[in-house]
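Q: What structure does this chain adopt?
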Amino acid sequence: MQPSPSSSQGRKRRMRLLLMVVTPFMIWGGVTYYAQSKQLTDKESKLHELQAQKAAVQAEKTQLEQKVKQLNDNEYISELARQNLFLSKKGEVIFITPDGTKK
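A:
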C-alpha cells in the first residue's frame, strides 16, 4: 500500500511542528553554551592571574619572615649598626677611607 496524500501531509505537518519546537531550543542551547564558555575562559584567566599574585605574596611573606628572624638576632643587629652607623666594639678603631676612585 502506498501512503495516502493525507497521511503524507500529516507527516510533513508533524515534522514541521517538531522542527519549530526543536530549533529554538537548539539555538538557545548554542547561545548559552557560547556565553558560558566565554565566562569560563575569563574566570580561568583571572584564576591564573590570582595564582601568580598569590605566589608573589607568599614569596614576599617568606622573605619578610626571614628578615624578622634576622632582626631578632642580636649579632645581626650589631653587625648592621657597625656597617651603617659606624659603631664599634670596645677597643676597636674605625678607619674611614675615601671611596675607591682610581685615577
